[in-house]
Design brief:
With about 250 residues, the protein is of the alpha/beta class. The protein has two domains: about 180 residues, Vaccinia Virus protein VP39 (Rossmann fold), CATH 3.40.50.150; about 50 residues, Single Sheet (N-terminal domain of TfIIb). The protein is about 25% helix and about 30% strand. The strands form two sheets. It has a seven-stranded mixed sheet with strand order 3-2-1-4-5-11-10, with helices on both faces. Strands 6-7-8-9 form a four-stranded antiparallel sheet, with helices on one face. It is globular, with a radius of gyration of 18 Å. The termini are far apart.
Length: about 250
């Protein structure tokens, strides 16, 4: 029996509440996305995966037409409710992030919040190809990921406890060099109820990531180490990759 992929079961229980507690993006982040995508007013922008609409809703308030994709029903319900309350031009669909049917109809797209490297080599490449197919020729795409080797391994992997609203959370990580997989274990405590979840992220070198973009039909325009726009280098948090679909 083939096990269910971890990302299909991670966002349940306490993990839903954790995501709901994530802070809204800063004005600087929103400006970065708009400027780097070179998005004109009224452009159709694909947010994948969109979560609760944390980034998509502020962009919709700026006059962009947002289409969000996620596979977690609770997140989509939150996003739809917020969009309806503010009468925003935003729609949210339950889909796998590799299943994007808007072939050549999207002006721009982004993958924000460290939501890449979930699905292994083939799955991650399939996602980039799906984004490329959805974009109009020349459409732009922004990817934020902290799962790049040159930035990640300058840090020491260790356990850490932190508080988030009414939750106490232990985050532990370990890395397997043979598979290039980083395993994150999350133990959360809420009102004496304990949950344990694991996520398994594929760690790419920067060169591998650039090769994936090329294979998926993108031209990489910039790769930054942060939204301050310095070049990506060893020790950077990013990269923040800005790419354009080739004609």
């Amino acid at each position: 029996m083939i096990p269910t992929p971890w990302y299909e079961t991670l966002f349940t229980g306490h993990m839903v509440d954790m995501q709901r507690s994530m802070p809204a993006p800063s004005q600087a982040e929103i400006e970065f996305i708009v400027q780097e995508l070179q998005a004109a007013p009224g452009s159709r922008i694909l947010d994948v995966p969109c979560g609760t609409g944390r980034v998509g809703l502020p962009l919709s308030m700026r006059g962009f037409r947002i289409t969000g994709v996620d596979r977690t029903p609770e997140f989509l319900a939150d996003a739809r409710r917020a969009a309806a309350q503010s009468n925003l031009n935003a729609e949210f669909e339950e889909r796998d992030m590799r299943n994007l049917p808007w072939i050549g109809h999207v002006d721009h797209a982004y993958c924000w919040g460290n939501s890449f490297a979930y699905m292994g080599d083939d799955g991650d490449l399939a996602f980039l190809k799906a984004v490329g197919r959805a974009l109009k020729p020349g459409g732009t795409f922004a990817l934020e990921t902290h799962f790049c080797a040159e930035g990640l391994f300058i840090q020491r992997l260790q356990k850490r406890w932190f508080e988030l609203n009414n939750m106490t959370i232990l985050h532990d990580t370990e890395y397997d060099p043979a598979t290039s997989i980083l395993t994150s274990t999350y133990v959360s405590l809420v009102n004496n109820q304990r949950e344990r979840k694991q996520a398994h992220y594929r760690i790419y070198t920067f060169r591998q990531l650039m090769e994936m973009f090329a294979t998926a039909g993108f031209e990489v325009l910039n790769a930054y180490g942060s939204i301050s726009r310095e070049p990506y280098q060893i020790g950077s948090q990013g990269p923040w990759v800005i790419a354009r679909r080739k004609s």
